[in-house]
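tl;dr need the bound structure. longer version: we got a ligand (pyridoxal-5'-phosphate) that a collaborator sent over and nobodys looked at where it sits. i said id run it. heres the input, straight from their email, havent touched it
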Amino acid sequence: MEVAQRLKSIPPYVFAEIDKKRQAAVARGVDVINLGIGDPDQPTPPHIVEAMQKAVADPANHRYPPFGGTKEYKAAAAEWMAKRFRVSIDPDSEITSLIGSKEGLHNTIMAFIDSGDVNLIPDPGYPVYRTSTILAGGDPYFMPLTPENEFLPDFKLIPGEVARKAKLMILNYPNNPTAGVADLEFFERAVAFAKKHNILLCHDLSYSEMTFDGYKAPSIFEVKGAKDVAVELHTLSKTYNMTGWRIGFAAGNSQAIKAIHSLKSNVDTDIFKAIQVAAIAAFEGPRDNIDRCNKLYAERRDLAVRRLRELGWEVTPNKATFYMWLRVPPGLTSQEFSTIMLDKAGIVVPPGNAYGPCGEGFFRVSLCASVERLAEAFDRMEKNAIGFNMAKATVKA
Ligand SMILES: Cc1ncc(COP(=O)(O)O)c(C=O)c1O
């Protein structure tokens, strides 16, 4: 049996690999602290779970769901966008349901990238941007995100030849893995670039509600005329602690939505209707759980900032997401540092290069662990002399 070339052309999924290493350590009896994956540790709010429980018992929800989402689901999503961002989205022509934004990203890329087309993607970035582009036969072009450019790509640095071949650009703010944020002025420039080069702009807004210290993340549709060239992917995964439920939506340019919908209707049969009912309860319900979780993440971040500074790191507190993007100690590669963290302290942190070439020299910490577990992680680092100024010779000994 031989698998397709396209499967051989992509690296194994980063988090699956990291999880293998974590499992091996657990099997050796290590009490592993997993700061690796961005998966909220708090439960889905009870009113959403109750809506699901009721809906699952209703036989009307047991049959095939309609393609693109139920009317009620799309209307509730559009209403949520109107309330949260003051933008007007037509639920019939400008929204299609998604089985989470990972699926939405893949199918958006499949719908717009042909062999030889360029997809302009952030580097570092969520790994699917790159792998799905390769699966589509296209060429990812990395737009560097660095501390120096405040993790915002400089569109002027994209060569004309690359821009001519580009069909798609993906942006993601608040950003994974860097926790960078973007303002409307940046999105205006992105929209102008997309218009000039006739490309679809896909904004992955997975972390729209996970913000701190008074910061509020904008939607790209707050930019006038953005709907001419953009779609935005939304997910309930992080906002409502629903990563396991698999539901989201794409909103925006009606032609692009039609293309994504058309591709999807050939490869999946949408989302269990009971889950859509639960998602409506999420959109229409109170925001208090979002505020509670953000308070929790901010407390964890503050603890991490304090302890990491004591360990020698220079840290700017992140305004959004539950990620911290940090430099590895001088003299070590990202991979070496990640391995030391697991082998010496039993802590999982992904190496920055897993997110793209510009991630080399960095690692990501995810704050999906209690303050007690985080404190334990920093205690272990201190005890094992893991700090920003650790000498390579010492740690290799
Ligand atoms: C930037 C980004 N996009 C998309 C996703 C996928 O989320 P979903 O659970 O909606 O598929 C993630 C998940 O971590 C993410 O970080």
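gonna send this back to them w/ a short note. The longest strand covers residues 118-123.
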